[in-house]
Design a protein that fits this description.
By secondary structure, the protein is of the alpha/beta class. It contains 12 helices and 12 strands. The chain is elongated and about 75 Å long. The structure holds beta-D-galactopyranose and calcium ion.
């Protein structure tokens, strides 16, 4: 039978300290290592949907890093990953069940970022530390409990870096100004309405150009909910409306949508405009190397997974989380974005 930490202590902080003490106690009691099951740390991981390229890379990294930690620490880390299927009610039920089954920590990629308060209150009541990631709750909600955390990247920074990629290309010569009118004509493919990354990347990408004195003209913009297929359909519609020659830049709030736009241009046999995305997913990096996607902005999924695991382990160990991760305002861990173009890939290549 598995000896779980939960069985010896009721509250996670004590239980936590118990992860390592339990093994020692077992040895002191004369139990041979062979008879002793390693201590188990149970982590609930709730995804807004599994059907999202970037989110599934975070889940995969978390799984990989947990296996490494198990080896190093001689313990078991059980990750229970649940798929919210983009439904907040479903996700709340899943979290109730994870708490009910006695998880030691929760990592939550919340479906509706305005619904965090109820979740924080649940976790607080059960005394299960709660780490939000990628989908950022509103700031006031985060203040409801000292053990509510957020791990992610600053959305506006992603927008600024994406804007700078385009700014550099604009300043590099007249080629980008296809119609030679001195104005940058663009379309914008946006992520889910209401998502901090959709709103702020959109705003700051354009602001970076206008702040630098570039005149811009928005030809069209629409949401494609982070999805390649939806982005392809929107871009195809714009091309059918005859916009093909006029579009000088396609801004996409993420790589999947940037790739969707490229799909539409290729299918319509139109010349590719300058297309930029965010995330640096594997297929996007291939498109950058193939010179189809001009550039992307790396969203550090591995960094997010690492920081969450470090937080979970520190909390389980009863140690100060600020010693394990760089914690801002007691609640936030920020991962930096980084721009990637074909030049960066070449420099990295041996
Ligand atoms: C963004 C990412 C998107 C999508 C979204 C989901 O940060 O760029 O590709 O994964 O998060 O919340
Ligand atoms: Ca122009």
């Amino acid at each position: 039978m598995n000896r779980t930490i939960k069985s010896c202590c009721s509250r996670w902080r004590r239980k936590a300290a118990g992860v390592f003490c339990a093994a020692l106690a077992a040895l002191a009691a004369g139990c041979g290592a062979a008879e002793t099951e390693p201590p188990v740390l149970r982590v609930g991981v709730a995804l807004y949907t599994q059907d999202d390229t970037f989110i599934s890379t975070i889940a995969a990294e978390l799984e990989r890093m947990a296996r490494e930690e198990e080896q190093e620490r001689g313990m078991r880390i059980n990750l229970s990953v649940v798929d919210g299927r983009s439904n907040q009610t479903t996700q709340l039920e899943q979290i109730d069940s994870l708490i009910g089954r006695g998880c030691d920590a929760l990592c939550v990629n919340i479906v509706d970022r305005t619904a965090a308060a109820v979740l924080i209150d649940k976790a607080r009541k059960a005394d299960v530390p709660l780490i939000f990631f990628n989908r950022q709750p509103v700031a006031e909600d985060m203040l409801r409990w000292e053990h509510a955390y957020y791990v992610g990247a600053k959305a506006e920074e992603g927008g600024v870096l994406q804007g700078r990629l385009v700014l550099e290309a604009w300043q590099a010569g007249p080629a980008l100004d296809r119609n030679g009118d001195g104005v940058l004509q663009y379309v914008m493919l946006e992520g889910e309405p209401g998502h901090q990354d959709a709103m702020l990347r959109t705003e700051y990408a354009v602001k970076t150009l206008t702040d630098a004195g570039v005149a811009v003209e928005k030809l069209a913009s629409d949401t494609a909910n982070w999805k390649r297929g939806q982005a392809m359909a929107k871009a195809r519609q714009w091309l059918e409306e005859g916009m093909g020659d006029a579009i000088e830049v396609v801004f996409a709030n993420n790589d999947d949508m940037a790739l969707g736009a490229i799909d539409a241009f290729k299918q319509a046999e139109e010349d590719l405009p300058l297309v930029v995305g965010v995330d640096a997913t594997a297929p996007a990096l291939e498109a950058v190397a193939a010179r189809e996607l001009y550039g992307t902005v790396r969203n550090d999924g591995a960094g997010i997974a690492r920081a969450m695991l470090d937080l979970v382990l520190a909390l389980a160990d009863g140690s100060d989380p600020a010693g394990a991760v760089e914690l801002e305002d007691g609640h936030y861990v920020w991962l930096p974005y980084r721009a990637v173009t074909a030049r960066d890939l070449e420099e990295k290549a041996p």
